[in-house]
């Protein structure tokens, strides 16, 4: 049986099932292990992780009187938080398929631009952000034509291109979120620039540390946690970005409960744009494949973030983010009441709970079925989503080909 407890309630002998929070908040390679070392216990208590899941079937239970939550209780809270989100109004001037074609080309161009800019930073050269504005305008236009296309595409990065495409993805997410918050277009563009440059400080981190497939040492973890300050120095020296962009670079790892870094800011001490950056950064990080971990399914990522929301993210910003990407983002595997499994294509503009879904598999026969696009928001409305599914549990390894197209999915999407 799984229970969620505070890190302060951890005891030696407990079996860690999962660490709650971003992967960048802790130095542990394995997220499931028996807690037998006092040193590991201390490292956990000193890390940015505030809660963990323990498996009492494999290790020590909580002491009498200690607070804990079951899986059902935590999931119920997360579901209630997600279902409380109101429906967004999104303008979609072009089809998803049409915009995917444009967005593929844009992602390739954006990756090349970010690689060149970040490479200058790694070599200690002056960073030229002169073309950033033009790139952000192109990304902004794509998001406006169809918000799901580029955001969903950018998630399909390989682990080798993560650092660069993560910047493109966060740029697109920041733009979409800023529009959801109804910010003026000038600030929407600034949000995009901030997203594109928020992780430039990682160029000060040795590549063997940045791409290490195993557990980080204490010194390596400390080096990685120094990337916000390093990025702020790089941008400050460039003298080409606003204070808003600089602030997001420096503070996108702060948390509203004050447990973030580098300055342990809390609540309103963290700017709106830094709070936006925190949500966008974590979402893309946990849905992307990394050298040390496979990314989560988008719907599972949203549910997990809803669990972490209190203390980690600004509640209002997170709810606006859910409106932006949907409770079931493009690429999510869902189970319908009819027993069919399908991949979410896009959100229907009047309801987050009734997206367009491509069904392809029957859970009853456990066999593939003819692919069919089902619009759950349109009559007769005799089917509905009853749950999220984990692709690996069904042996599905390339669901993105169903919404993206196999010819587009082959290899790295961005050259």
From TrEMBL:
SMART domains: HDc. InterPro entries: DUF3391, HD/PDEase_dom, HD_GYP_dom, HDIG_dom. Coiled coil: none annotated. SUPFAM superfamilies: HD-domain/PDEase-like. Residues 139-337 form the HD-GYP domain. One of its GO terms (molecular function) is phosphoric diester hydrolase activity. This is HD-GYP domain-containing protein. It comes from Pseudomonas mangiferae. The lineage of its organism: Bacteria, Pseudomonadati, Pseudomonadota, Gammaproteobacteria, Pseudomonadales.
